[in-house]
Amino acid sequence: MKTARQLSIFLLLISALSAYYASYQMIIDPTGNSLGLPFYLLNGTLLNSYSVVGWILLVSVAVFSSITLITIIVRCRFYSFLIILQGVIIFIFVFMQMFLVGETFIIQYVSLIFGAGLIGLGILQNQRKMAVDIEKKVLREQKSHHHKHRKHH
Q: Cα 66 to chain center, whole Å?
């Protein structure tokens, strides 16, 4: 499971760093020029600048990926669920972009691969955690049962 955890950390780190960079650029330059985003992409959407997209990206991907990274490092019991959730959030964010903009770009497909990878890795780690928990429970019950039926001398 160490490999799955390390891969999760890698994908979350890349996602967080790229989202921090992109969201910062969108917030300080709402025209999108600093990222090479054409302003016409916002035509027909509810948005009149990239600033709102930057804030959404900052909170939903950059900050949430960072929180998830911390839960993995300190080994919180629920970190696998957060990995899955971050993958789903990335999927939703990218699909909303594709739907609203009506055009697709290579970075969106890369992001979808990262999201799918996170979902898969989170599920893998969650299944492993469930198996370990069941194994521990069975061992506890066996010990408890053994102690109840020992003969007293």
A: 9
17 inside domain: yes
For residue 12, the tally of other CB atoms under 10 A from its CB is: 26
Token digits of residue 28: 């300080």
Q: Is 139 part of a structural domain of the chain?
A: no
Q: For residue 29, what are the domain limits?
A: 2-126
The set of residues, in sequence order, having a beta carbon less than 8 Å from that of 37 and lying 6+ positions away, is: 26, 50
> pLDDT tens digits, residue range 25-66?
999 999 999 999 988 988 888 889 999 999 999 999 999 999
Torsion of the alpha carbons at 13, 109, 45 and 58, rounded to the nearest 10:
0
Q: What is the pTM of this model?
A: 0.84
CA separation for the pair 11, 43 (Å, rounded): 32
Q: What distance in Å separates the CA atoms of residue 47 and residue 70, rounded to the nearest whole number?
A: 33
DSSP E strand stretches across 6-102? none
| Separation of alpha carbons 147 and 151, rounded Å | 9
Domains contained in the chain, number = 1
Residue 144 lies in a domain: no
- Is residue 132 in some structural domain? no
Q: What is the pLDDT of residues 115-127, one digit of tens each?
A: 999 999 999 999 8
